[in-house]
Backbone:
């Protein structure tokens, strides 16, 4: 369990027009937890482009080398763009990268025209590993640090949430609706506060995510 938790937005759509930071369609959070005086730092997602993430981290005085892990909430390009570049920028070997086993699948839309929406060229599994990453793929809750873990795959229980039918994938060479099984979040257990839930896009549904967390931590 953590003694304290801090979440800083590194990449997001909206920033002041003439401010020091750059915005783009995408998302990246810095998650900093402290326990017994020791700090652990991790990222949930990396946004769409490594240039924006690097610029904003530099503006905040955050060194990539100070980051301990990267968790990817789902496959979308605006959450995973430049993942390999970021891993390389940490200068570390066997840098932990955690995601769902389905994250590297084909993922696309055909409306209005065929467009890849998933992991882009240069951020494949092999590229991340070549950059120094040690990739852990799990559909179960996965520990990131003491008091911090992924939610694992989210069961779809509600009938009013979900990604719809616009996203597609390939199953045995055939086109099928992609339900984004890789969508997941992070939980942080904070002393005196309870459980903090950090989500990416919540394609699986925020209610489903919260129900998942309740089932994992019934106390």
Residues:
């Amino acid at each position: 369990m953590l003694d304290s938790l801090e979440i800083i937005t590194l990449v997001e759509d909206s920033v002041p027009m003439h401010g020091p930071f750059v915005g783009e369609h995408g998302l990246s959070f810095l998650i900093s937890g402290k326990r017994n005086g020791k700090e652990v730092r991790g990222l949930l997602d990396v946004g769409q482009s490594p240039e924006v993430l690097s610029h904003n981290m530099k503006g905040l005085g955050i060194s990539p080398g100070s980051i301990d892990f990267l968790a990817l909430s789902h496959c979308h390009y605006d959450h995973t763009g430049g993942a390999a570049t970021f891993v390389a920028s940490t200068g570390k070997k066997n840098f932990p990268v955690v995601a769902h086993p389905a994250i590297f699948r084909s993922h696309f839309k055909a409306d209005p025209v065929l467009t890849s929406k998933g992991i882009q060229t240069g951020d494949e599994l092999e590229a991340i590993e070549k950059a120094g990453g040690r990739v852990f793929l799990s559909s179960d809750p996965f520990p990131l640090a003491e008091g911090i873990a992924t939610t694992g795959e989210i069961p779809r229980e509600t009938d009013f949430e979900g990604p719809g039918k616009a996203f597609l994938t390939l199953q045995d060479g055939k086109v099928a609706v992609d339900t984004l099984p890789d969508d997941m979040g992070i939980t942080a257990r904070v002393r005196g506060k309870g459980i903090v839930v950090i989500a990416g896009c919540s394609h699986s549904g925020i209610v489903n995510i919260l129900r998942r967390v309740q089932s994992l931590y019934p106390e």
Notes: The radius of gyration is 17 Å. The longest strand covers residues 4-11. The chain is about 15% helix and 30% strand.
